[in-house]
Amino acid sequence: MTDVEVKKKDSVKNRIKEPKKYKVVVLNDDYTPMDFVVAILMQIFRHSESQAMSLTLQIHNEGSAVAGIYNYEIAEQKGIEATGVARENGHPLQIKVESE
Predict the structure, then answer these.
(1) Domains observed in the chain
(2) Residues 24-52: pLDDT tens digits?
(3) Full 3-state SS string of the chain
(4) Which terminal Cβ of the chain has fewer Cβ within 10 Å, N or C?
(5) pTM of the predicted model, to two decimals?
């Protein structure tokens, strides 16, 4: 019988990466009423009325604003939900999800 030498690593490195976060961005358009955008930000993204008003003004003045930052699945779902509500109400509101 032959002796086999077995080497063991003394340390094991476990590197757990945090999942990437994704931004849900609301884009400005000339047709969707600001009151509707405020309502979407409050209902779907759970912003207070003052936060929603501030974000809506940022969307209006700067062309877009981040409504929230989430894990991919949640970001995508909120984007789909907001777009669906906008379309049901006849508004062309644009939402995009992008990597942080």
Answers:
(1) 21-99 (3.30.1390.10)
(2) 999 999 999 999 999 999 999 999 999 99
(3) CCCCCCCCCCCCCCCCCCCCEEEEEEECCCCCCHHHHHHHHHHCCCCCHHHHHHHHHHHHHHCEEEEEEEEHHHHHHHHHHHHHHHHHCCCCCEEEEEEC
(4) N
(5) 0.82
